[in-house]
Amino acid sequence: MIHRRAAFALALAVAGLPAAAQDVGPRRAPDAGARQRVEVPSPVLTIDQDRLFLESQWGRRVQEEIEARSAALAAENRQIEAALVAEERQLTERRRTLPPAQFRPLAEAFDLKVQRLRAEQDAKTRQLSRLREEARRQFYATVGEILGDLVRDRGAVAILDRRAIFLSADAIDVTDESIARIDGVIGDGSEIMPLDFDTAATPDEPGDPATTGQPGLPATPGGPATPGQPDLPAAPAEPGAPD
Length: 243
Prior knowledge:
Radius of gyration: 28 Å
Low-confidence stretches: 1-35, 205-226
Helix content: 40-55%
Distance between the termini: 64 Å
Largest sheet: 2 strands, parallel
Number of helices: 5
Order of helices and strands: HEHHHEH
Shape: rod-shaped
């Protein structure tokens, strides 16, 4: 089926070339710098689905808002990490003067606090990913009617994602035209789907492999922690335990 689809797309690309392209007679040189795409009648059009979203006003707004939120989350993680490091140092000092029976509850409470904060911050990062995917799905659901009008205006019957086609003529690509139409109709989509960052992110249940971590270890070995995974410390060892 894949080979038949590729062969069909190739046949369309060849058959769709203008007759002038087969003329071997003398031709007039095009104007310098002139770049004009010729609309070739074709029952099938192609589109770059990723570009359609990312280069639209809607897609650019989503990326900008999520990047700004990610930067704020990274700054929040650094503040949390600094506060926990300071608290860890205080525990280390108290360990020298407290008997094990009194120090152990303090160390356990600190460990639980670290795990809770990590789960909360991880949940915020996952929320950003969910918002990005939700905005993308809503975008494609919203622009279907606009693309349908484009198909009818071109006298075509379908639009295929370019990634699913082995070879096609650029003349049947309608990505730029689609973006222009979408921007003209729905703009940045903020009235249709504003990003709700105020919805509280819910940490996964304890023991979930997605969030269970080891306090004191970087989230990414050999590299900086991701925005949702601060490099959190662990509680000091109990008195008498090896450091």
